[in-house]
Amino acid sequence: MTETLVFLPEQMSDARLYGPQIAEMSRDQAVMIAPITQGDRIEEIASTLLDLVPTRFALVGHGMGGIVAMEVYRRAPDRVTRLALMGTTPLAETPQVAALRDPQMIRARAGRFDAVLAEEFRLADLAPGPHQREVLALVLEMARGLGPEVFVRQSRAMQRRRDQQGTLRRINVPTLVLCGAEDRLYPVKRHSFMAEMIPKAELRVIEDAGHMPMLEQPEAVTDALLGWLAQPLLLR
Question: Does the reported pTM lie above 0.90?
């Protein structure tokens, strides 16, 4: 029996982030989206998710969703059958970036949420292409729908996150590390570093994609995920 596939979205995103993959993969696979909006610590979000998902599951996380996925694995490695980490980082927040989040949270709550989103989500985060503006419009629509309070909670969680490099070294399930070739937020070299830390991880770099490869190059990402799901499970 195939595992349930659990998707964790990026910060300020919802199920539409994985729309193309869900449409293709749900034909033959049980698929669910788990929210990462509850709680202002990564540990709290992960604990809540573990109460929602099946006993055993395959886990995909992008961006902040990838950070939560690492914490889920740290807490419950026997429940995760395989892991895909996309456009993310195992590192804790730097003090400089953490300090920048405080004025953003204040502005978001003070009625300047759209201005904050314009700073956070930019065309430069995506690879040039005919659908670049369409993808950015969807990203902003998802963020506006979640609203400033979710933005504040998630920003606090990102500020306080732990370093997960030790977790990566202990991963012993089929693992895919994936990123866009033009991702400026979390570049290829950072994903290569992650893949080297994880025993038997596979690194996939998606050409002509930035930080949102699942929307920028959906077929390539879907193919990578299907290949990952086809890998035999490891005996533990």
Answer: yes
